Amino acid sequence: MATVHHWTGLEAKALRLALRLSVRAFAQQLGLAVATVSKWESKLADTEPRPDTQAILDTALGRADAAVHLRFETLLSEMTSPLTTPRRRVTTSGPRAWEYESWADDLDRVVVALSRQNFAFADSLLTRWLGRFKAPELDEKGLYLFARSTALLGDLRRDQGVVLGPLSAQHSYAGARAVFTQLDIPRRVAQLDLSLAVVTEMSGKLEIAARNYETLAVDDRLSRRDRARAWLWVGTALSKDGQHDYATRVMQAATRDFEDLTEPDDWSVAHQKLALARRGAGDLTQALHFIDIARNSGTTESPMQRVRLDTAHGHILLSDTATRDDGHLVLDQAAQVAAQYGLVHQLRSIEGIKTMSEGPTGPRQR
Known about the structure:
Distance between the termini: 67 Å
Protein name: HTH cro/C1-type domain-containing protein
Domain HTH cro/C1-type: 13-42
Number of helices: 18
Radius of gyration: 29 Å
Strand order of the largest sheet: 1-2
InterPro entries: Cro/C1-type_HTH (IPR001387), Lambda_DNA-bd_dom_sf (IPR010982), TPR-like_helical_dom_sf (IPR011990)
């Protein structure tokens, strides 16, 4: 927002025009005589309001919205020049309000880009703002946007498979968590804890991840949906650790929560993970049943979800010698989509599944 160091008739006229008021209406709003305002506008920079009137003008500008501030600064810039105004009349403290609005709009665009795995565009939008401002120079609203941007950068890095290191999802999530802690927003802090637990699972620390998920699944700072997702991920970590039957029970409880909450996409993902848990338990009939439900439900068909579904489906098909070749075909298709969209973590998973399926007999014949 703009701050006027010292009011003259020039700034006063710019404010009146920015407010789109007549001389009479402006005088009435300030509680001054019409003649006083007329004097300001006739003498401009050659006259100065009294100290008490300076404070009245400060208040009028402070109460104005972002559009008025934009018009005020634009008008003042047009009305002055370096020759007529050797000293700086107006400064801004941090990003202007309309910049915050643009920033928030861009974050909405980032969310859409990430849902489509358009990583390059999402990265350019985030870099635009994170490279423009430093956290210490921002007010609370700016810090909130900074933290949201940093958290979304973590999502981008996670989806790209960069989970550890200085330019990783873990690093971004930790940075965002520190800012939300500073702002005292417990829900956001808990959501970052959940994201950090996902990174822990992705890095292979399954027992630690499961314990973290279990803690967050009963954390009142999180919404019911986030708590259900935490339970689902408890099951995921347990299944990866070989505890398939217990994982199935936990996942089924989360699935019921998603149904109660009317969350079709989460419900679909839960069936996908149930399918993998039953595959791990050797129950291929149930595994195929659950993966069919997952493939025929949900409302979002993003490249990421398509790759995950096809990877799970291919993994199940590989587990039966009768459908082994079909499984390889499905995994090959998933790998092509993963490579197209830069889904490195999914590519690694697909290659790992293929390697395990080859076993001691060597690679399949083509």
